[in-house]
Structure formats: structure tokens, C-alpha cells
């Protein structure tokens, strides 16, 4: 069994498209939506779609923690509400979780943005190079991890930003594996903030985190 854990906050339309893309999963695979107090009908839509919804304190780190606590495991796939997998993803996930000794390894997807421009291809190349070279995939690339390994690592921390980086640093590059399929993610934030400015902002936040700046302070700067 696999638990797909999705943190949400006022993302009804994006989540609807993602749930449609995940609909072809095996029947035994559950989806747990961990909502942070949406007021746009996100939880209600998810429940109508037959998805289990839990509601708690806002903050992606806290929501991911709560989702894992509510999940039935024994494998977790942490996923973003504005992201959907390419066809063929189910077979790749099954192959990974059934491979011997992978209980203490994790997997992630290649990043693809839903935008046809050269700017999007540049951002994708940078993100996928960062993930493979430094072992730093972000949350929008998904994270497939066993319950056993997740608990061994201490899980996500209740921080408002960099919760994904914090966890994959504890995993370490040798135990991170790229799956040969893409997580197709919304490029809305890049179109809104700028194709150059947003990556620079992300890299700045990453450097501050590595320098030991508190996550709450980075979050305030990020906003």
C-alpha cells in the first residue's frame, strides 16, 4: 500500500486537476489531503472526490507531518497539489518500492513545468541538475520514501519553508534516486514573479538556510 500525501491551502482548481491525474492509481493506494485551513472549498472538493482529508495548522512542514501521521503506509509519496505525474508513473513507483533493500532509499521525479517557453526549459534544466548533482530535489518533484525510513530520519520538521531541503539533506545524495518520469508542475509562480527573479529568490533562500538562518526569518523574506 502507498499513501500519497498532499498539503493544501486554497488550491481547489489545482488539486482537482491533480486528483484527476492520480485517479489511475491502484485501488489500494490512498490519498491523504492535509489541509491548512482553506476557505475556497478545497477540502470539500477533495472529500467529494473520495479522498481522505485532515485539517490542521497552516504551514507546509506541519501539514506534511500531520499527513504522514494520518497515513496508513508502509510507503509515502509526498506530492504537491499543483503537480501531476506523467503516464507510466505507477509502474515506476511499484518497481522502486518492491526492489530489495530500497526501504532505506528514496526516489523523486524529474521536474517539468507546464509552460512551452525556453524560459521554462532553462528552469527545468537548473532544477534537475541541482537535484542530481547535489542531491537536492525540491518538494515539487515528489518524494517517495518508506514509512520505516521516514520515521528513522525523524520526518519533516514543523518549519514554514525549506522543509523539503531539510529532509533530503538528512537522506543524503547516495540514497536519493531519480525516477525516469516527470512531475509536471504549474509554472504560474514563475510567470507571476519572473523567470529570472523567482529562481534567484529560491537560490537566495537556499543559501540562507545553509548558512543557518532560521526558517521563520527566511519565510518572511520569501513572502
Explain what the structure shows.
The protein has 223 residues and is of the alpha/beta class. The protein has one domain (2-189): Spore Coat Polysaccharide Biosynthesis Protein SpsA, Chain A. It has helices at 12-21, 42-48, 60-70, 89-98, 118-134, 147-153, 163-171, 188-193, 197-210, 215-222, and strands spanning 2-8, 30-35, 52-55, 75-78, 83-85, 106-113, 143-146, 176-185. Strand 1, helix 1 and strand 2 form a beta-alpha-beta unit. The longest helix is centred in the middle third of the chain and has 17 residues, at 118-134. The termini are far apart. The mean pLDDT is 96.
Distance between the termini: 37 Å
User: Helix and strand string, N-terminal first?
Assistant: EHEHEHEEHEHEHHEHHH
Give the class-level CATH name. Answer: Alpha Beta
Strand content: 15-25%
Number of separate domains: 1
Strand order of the largest sheet: 3-2-1-4-7
Overall SS class: alpha/beta
Q: Largest sheet at a glance?
A: 5 strands, mixed
Computed over alpha carbons, the radius of gyration is: 16 Å
Number of helices: 10
The name CATH uses for the topology is: Spore Coat Polysaccharide Biosynthesis Protein SpsA, Chain A
CATH architecture descriptor text: Alpha-Beta Complex
The strand count comes to 8
Low-confidence stretches: none
Mean pLDDT: 96
Per the principal axes of the C-alpha atoms, what is the gross shape?
Answer: globular
CATH superfamily: Spore Coat Polysaccharide Biosynthesis Protein SpsA, Chain A
Into which percent range does the helicity of residues fall?
A: 40-55%
